[in-house]
Amino acid sequence: xxxxxxxxxxxxxIEVPSRGRHVNSGAGPAFQVLEIGHxxxxxLVAADTAFWALVRKEKLADALAGGRxxxxxxxxxxxxxxxxxxxxxxxxxxxxxxxxxDRCNLNCTYCYLPASTRRHGQQMPxxxxxxxLERLRRYFEAAPAQDGLPQVVFHGAEPLLNRKAVFEAIxxxxxxxxxxxxxxxxxxxxxxxxxxxxxxxxxxISLDAPVAAAADRTRRSWAGSGVYDRVVAAMKRxxxxxxxxxxxxxxxxxxxxxxxxxxxxHAHHVPAAMLNVVRCTTPSARALRPADQEASACFLxxxxxxxxxxxxxxxxxxIANFANTLLAILxxxxxxxxxxxxxxxxxxxxxxxxxGGDLFPCSEFIGLPTFRAGNIxxxxxxxILAGPVCRLVTGRRVEDIEPCHRCAIRHFCxxxxxxxxxxxxxxxxxxxxxxxxxxxxxxxxxxxxxxRKQDAFLWDGWDRNTVESFSFxxx
Length: 475
Known about the structure:
Blueprint: E1 5-6, E2 32-34, E3 41-46, E4 51-56, H1 60-65, H2 68-89, E5 95-98, H3 115-120, H4 126-142, E6 151-154, H5 163-172, E7 178-183, H6 190-198, E8 202-206, H7 212-218, H8 228-237, E9 244-250, H9 258-267, E10 272-277, H10 283-286, H11 292-313, E11 318-319, H12 320-330, E12 350-353, E13 358-360, E14 374-375, H13 381-385, H14 388-394, H15 410-413, H16 418-425, H17 435-450, E15 467-468
Parallel strand pairs: 1-15, 5-6, 5-12, 6-7, 7-8, 8-9, 9-10, 10-11
Antiparallel strand pairs: 2-3, 3-4, 12-13, 13-14
Helix pairs in contact: 4-5, 9-11, 11-17, 12-17
């Protein structure tokens, strides 16, 4: 990975002086003004490099006319552009989302996997799973080295339906991979949790609302019964484990519960959560899509609640998808998720493997057969990732998307998600489903930075390995 470069967090104090102005005649850097909804500040963004500065509104004319800020930026613009180029096009996969089974014991309304697959799909036999992981080990061993061990996340469908094989794989490849598991939580008994904790496996649990009536509306068994109580019981067992999180899929049915959901998760000592707006890759998911304006209002209210709880208790609940938006601004190459940049992480930072060994650029594509890129038991992983299917996704550039190529925040948002864009509009080179929703997150992030609240939303020590590459403040 390229070095992490922290964009300074003290730009809220910038006041650009009028002396020493250099009029921008068109040959200089192109800054766009972004209104962020703050009473004192606006953002100036050089969209091509993701450079930004917060400027007092009364100093905006001076800032646009020129001065020391633009002069300093011009001298480092090439460096910033190189960093973004390396982040976007210089990475290679280091994570695999591995489906040990196609099957699931739940019939969630918005699932991106076809119902027939979840009911009657394959179970990967133990020997086949060990073979697949050995192939992955050899692939990563030959790949450019990155920080830490490569990661394998057992994903789904529901991975614990193939629990015996999964646990054997974790034992066999301990010390070779970092392991994670994403589960609906219904099969997490005491023995399973003890095993996962002993092997330092990160655990993600799915729960969509703080009350059963809302949570069970979209997450039910095949018989139609809700599973809220079973998931909450698993959460209580995990309370003191640092390596767990909760993922909530945000739909029109639970959108109004988001602030209450944050309070619920905080009360259960959840270290981190993701409040992911539903991906509109299937007709059933599209039917649950909330409107952008409502999604924005409720999501930002949930962030307000998270901040208030931290101020009251000193204990954080990190909303990881928003934290990543903050990092995209503060320290672009330190971001931990890769959905909010183009190309996204699909096929270049991670890929997905199904129970039959089929490789897809990302799990979101598994329900779209066109994006089956190959099979790891039949072709080399390198060859598959270099093939036309993955290249279609890894070649997706926000600069080629209308209207994103004109947008100031194009490298803070990335026009997610290519699978959603393809399902909605027939091409990965189109916008996804929630443009205004992502815009409002970025504006909120800039307001948090202007008010020096960013640390309340980020993991402790987030800046430990960052290097400040630009700092400017006017007298």
